[in-house]
Amino acid sequence: MAAEWYLDFVDLKHRPRADEILALFKVEPASGMSIREAAGRVASESSIGTWTKLTTLKPRMRRLMAHVYEIEGPWVKVAYPLELFEEGSVPGLASAIAGNIFGMKALKNLRLVDVQLPRKYLRSFKGPLFGRQVIKKIFRRKSGPITAVVPKPKVGFTSREHAAEIGYALWRGGIDCVKDDENLTSQRFNRFERRVKLLAKFRDKAERETGEVKDAFINVTAPNLRELERRVKLVHEHGFRYFMIDVVVSGFTAVQTATDLARDYGMAIHGHRAMHAAFTRNPRHGISMLCLAKLMRVMGVDQLHIGTVIGKLAGAKREVLAIKELITQQEVEEIPGLRMPQRWGEIKPMLPVASGGLHPGILPEVFDIYGTTDLVIQVGGGTLGHPMGAQAGARAVVQAIEAYKAGVSLEEYAKTHQELRAALKHWGRTKPV
Ligand code: CAP
Ligand code: MG
Q1: Residue 230 CA, ligand 2 centroid: distance in Å
Q2: Residue 181: CB within 6 Å of ligand 1?
Q3: Is the entire prediction scored with pTM above 0.90?
Q4: What pLDDT sits at residue 2?
Q5: Would you state the pLDDT for residue 146?
Q6: 185 and 99 within one domain
Q7: What percent of the chain lies above the pLDDT cut of 70?
Q8: C-beta of residue 92 within 8 angstroms of C-beta of residue 86
Q9: 246-267 confidence digits (pLDDT tens)
Q10: Could you tell which of 147, 150, 246 is best to mutate to test the pocket of ligand 1, judged by most ligand atoms within 8 Å of the CB?
Q11: Does residue 7 form part of some domain?
């Protein structure tokens, strides 16, 4: 009897059942290791195996084994019986299919590209409460884009400066949502409670004065789940329809807690993905952004940063488009090496958020990629760096959207709109790096 049983997990004749979870990995074996042996280790360690055969394994447990059912070059597909996983738990899923396997010595690199989730499993999740319906239900408009601006510098303002000076100016300039930055939580100079209170006060004032719906993406990212819950409640009690959470640094348990709370309070969630690139950026290792976005939709985040293609942060066009389609459609097809087929059943779509290095001069390119109807755009530096100040910066963003929607070039529109003119003079069509 061989001590190892990794190859027992490879069965290229296995035909995945409709209720199995299927994962696509890119596998780079360590030197001296065949792809078959390496793939077997992935299926084993991510289901019921370990480095040796176990004398405690009862025959009935074999049905929980995952199976490598396809190997094509470096691409390996693994089928997991649904019974392996707790229903409705992304932490439970991730600890298996995205757990120990990334550290195995037998693998030089391992990339989880995508995971195909069966209907039966998806039914144990609720998905987003609003998704794209935020446009209609919160902003009472027919189409997007929803506009958001982060007061910059990202941190440093007092709560009063944040709300009364910058936030208010942005709302008055025509922006829908004042957004907290990912690293603004509850620092000494800008405590959470005070920021929420003051933002509510100036939101009401801006709403009264403009007659428009105004909201904020206030960051509830907290040191623990109790505090997270307290912060969500506080935001809700101050009349906001949204809150924001840093979905990666907070962790999957926090995200699922947040989505439950959001349902209780009838709120939408803005997901910021800070830290994702630590595991999504290297195409040979880690977890793809597409896979992360899929898990966020499953858990019920309403809108998520997925990149701009042209802004300051990494993300290739082909991938961003594949993610956009995945999170906005009810059914998507396979793209070899990039995406698995997925049917979403009852799970609502999410809204993509384009952010990072945007300014009025390059917004048309973002709209060419994303369209304008189902989209959130965030323009931080590209508003707060405007030579005429925050409110004019906000106006320039709004004017760029108006021009695009009217089918007029920015230069043409700028002739009669001084804020846009100043923005174009300042930044032109620069693509920041
Ligand atoms: C953008 C931003 C966002 C990034 C995150 C920032 O600011 O607020 O955190 O967009 O990246 O701090 O960089 P600017 P992504 O508008 O000033 O660039 O959306 O790719 O997750
Ligand atoms: Mg930021």
Answers
A1: 23
A2: yes
A3: yes
A4: 59
A5: 98
A6: no
A7: 99
A8: yes
A9: 999 999 999 999 999 999 999 9
A10: 150
A11: yes
pLDDT at residue 1 greater than cutoff 60: no
Say how far apart CA 157 and CA 240 lie, in whole Å.
21
Report the chain's mean pLDDT, rounded to a whole number: 97
Quote the domain boundaries for residue 267. 131-427
Give yes or no for residue 383 CB within 6 A of ligand 1. Answer: no
Report CA dihedral (395, 401, 402, 408) to the nearest 10 degrees.
Answer: 120
Q: How far is the CA of 356 from the centre of ligand 1 (A)?
A: 4
The residue to mutate among 175, 289, 378, having the most atoms of ligand 1 within 8 angstroms of its beta carbon, is: 378
> DSSP class of residue 417?
-
Residue that is last in its domain, among 103, 122, 141:
122
Distances (CA, A) of 238 to 201, 234, 340: 9, 6, 42
Q: Which residues of 301-318 are buried (b: 16+ CB within 10 A; e: fewer)?
A: bbbbbbbbbbbebebeee
Q: Judge whether 26 lies within some domain.
A: yes
Same domain, 416 and 309: yes
Given pLDDT bands bounded at 50, 70 and 90, which one contains residue 311?
A: confident
Looking at the structure of the chain, the number of domains it has is: 2
Tell which of 96, 122, 148 closes a domain: 122
Question: Which one of 236, 272, 386, 426 is the catalytic residue?
Answer: 272
CATH of the domain at 352: 3.20.20.110
Based on the residue annotation, tell me whether 317 is a catalytic residue of this protein.
no
Residue with tokens 């000076």: 165
Tell me whether residue 433 is in a domain: no
Using a 10 angstrom Cβ sphere, with 0-12 exposed, 13-18 middle and 19 or more buried, the burial of residue 187 is: middle
Q: Taking ligand 2, which is a single-atom ion, which protein residues have CB atoms under 5 Å away? A: 181-182
